[in-house]
Specification:
By secondary structure, the chain is α+β, with helices and mostly antiparallel strands. The protein is built from 2 helices and 4 strands; from the N terminus they run ββαββα.
């Protein structure tokens, strides 16, 4: 029998710590800013709102999240 393991992600900035469930974590990478491409127009507007761009890593397109928007949205969600 195979059990699914829950995945949690913790992010911190300026004495703020947030932990939330995620479906998948690809990893942590150092990215050259020249590698970042624009978000394709076929990405839904709700997802694109939180993305700075996309980058290709190991033949996969990975969304680069906008940390400013994420932290401000998290703060608003608890007020």
């Amino acid at each position: 029998m195979v059990y699914q393991q829950d995945r949690m992600m913790a992010i911190a900035r300026d004495r703020e710590l947030w932990v939330f469930p995620v479906d998948e974590i690809e990893g942590i990478y150092s990215i050259d800013l020249a590698q970042i491409e624009n978000v394709p127009v076929n990405v839904s507007k709700s997802a694109a709102a939180y993305m700075k761009g996309i980058v290709k890593i190991d033949h996969k397109m990975i969304g680069l999240l906008d940390e400013e928007l994420i932290f401000s949205s998290l703060k608003r969600s608890i007020q």
